[in-house]
Hints:
Order of helices and strands: HHHEEEH
Oligomer: single chain
Distance between the termini: 43 Å
Radius of gyration: 14 Å
Largest sheet: 3 strands, antiparallel
Number of helices: 4
Shape: globular
Mean pLDDT: 91
Amino acid sequence: MEALSPLEQALHAARALVLADLMAGRVAEADVVSMVEESVAQRRWWVEQWPEGVGYVAGLVAQDVQDALLERYGRWPLCPVCGSGDPHSLDVEPELGPDPHWVCHKAGVRVARVGTLGAAGGATSS
Length: 126
């Protein structure tokens, strides 16, 4: 069995992390999983063009899926920290960097690493 390249390892990890967050929010329907696959395919090309960006793939896939969900269904993931006021989504930080986290800018807190929203207690869509 052939070992996976660092690029393929990063893409598989990004897919798994984003799917875990989608499953935590109970939004991992077939069409949403297709959004993840589309993002992974696009990011494969992106990293082939810029190999130094391999460490940024998880955050970029999370952002891609978040943007696609917003266009089609609404905000995701909703902030589990702020209990009052208008529902708002979390953001990925850093936007282009390693170790991406879901962040609530309203409360000014890191909520969870990408892939661990289930442990943070909230990842629903509006």
